Amino acid sequence: MAYRNLEISNRGAVRTIVVNRPDKLNALNRDTLNELGLVFAQAAQDDAVRVVVLTGAGEKAFVAGADIAEMNGYTPVQAQGFSRAGQRLMTSIERLGKPVIARVQGFALGGGMELAMACHLRVASEKAKFGQPEINLGLIPGFGGTQRLLRLAGRGAALELCLTGAPINAQRAYELGIVTRVVAPEALDEAVNTLADQLAAAAPLAAAGILDAVLQGGETAIDQGLEFETQGFALAFSTGDMREGTTAFLEKRKPQFTGR
Ligand code: COA
Q1: Which pTM value belongs to this model?
Q2: Structural domains present in the chain
Q3: In angstroms, what is the span from residue 169 Cα to ligand 1's centroid?
Q4: What's the gap in Å between 64 CA and the centre of ligand 1?
Q5: Which InterPro entries match (predicted)?
Q6: Is-catalytic flag, 134?
Q7: 111 CB under 6 A from ligand 1?
Q8: Judging by beta carbons within 10 Å of its beta carbon (0-12, 13-18, 19+), is residue 112 exposed, middle or buried?
């Protein structure tokens, strides 16, 4: 299926989704949000996909935010719908059940930073810039930024970034725990591909259990979170992959995981 604002490709079990509106620095309009919702739903259902890489077209921007031109005419009710649609998309990415890597080569601002934060891992070029500049538009983040930034980097960083609206570079984002790896621009693709291949070879049901325990279990009180972990741990013993992983260790060979 062809998309107006996205490009999709596959490399083995790695699906790459490119937000493709480079003339608008890949800004997220309603149409792009809808298309992203569809492709992520497909990636969730397709067992052949083990890892998703999300990025933006061109060198300049990952995604420079929600589409300001489109928002300019919104009524409060339309804005509510837009925020809910954005939040639904971000939550669906976070709960995909398979690892999603954001490949951030340039601007990740506003909705772009929110999109990157909904991914599980963020690999950034040294040239990337992150920020929540909504306040400069008389707005507040609306795609989950206040909540995910708070959880990723703490209250101080969330308030500083959202209240000043000032962008930070990739190194600062790394220091704040927002980005998981920073590499030279020319090393970005190799770093993303190596990480994606590593995750694609991992046991998918174990990966799903880890995502669930950290993301959902982590939102509860510690006793419930620990119980969440125990249930996930026990469930792993129902999988062939767990037998294969432990047997391969004992037989001193590399495991072959099948996702069963
Ligand atoms: N929404 C809609 N269009 C956007 C956009 C956004 N969030 N970000 C960039 N664009 C468009 C610009 O309007 C411009 O379109 P035009 O050529 O039709 O005028 C095009 O993308 C290129 O952007 P431009 O501003 O000319 O590039 P720049 O290099 O001078 O500046 C930025 C780059 C990222 C600093 C600047 O585009 C910017 O501040 N964007 C908005 C960031 C933002 O506030 N995001 C949060 C939104 S909630």
Answers
A1: 0.97
A2: 6-200 (3.90.226.10), 203-250 (1.10.12)
A3: 18
A4: 6
A5: ClpP/crotonase-like_dom_sf (IPR029045), Enoyl-CoA_hyd/isom_CS (IPR018376), Enoyl-CoA_hydra/iso (IPR001753), Enoyl-CoA_hydra_C (IPR014748)
A6: yes
A7: yes
A8: buried
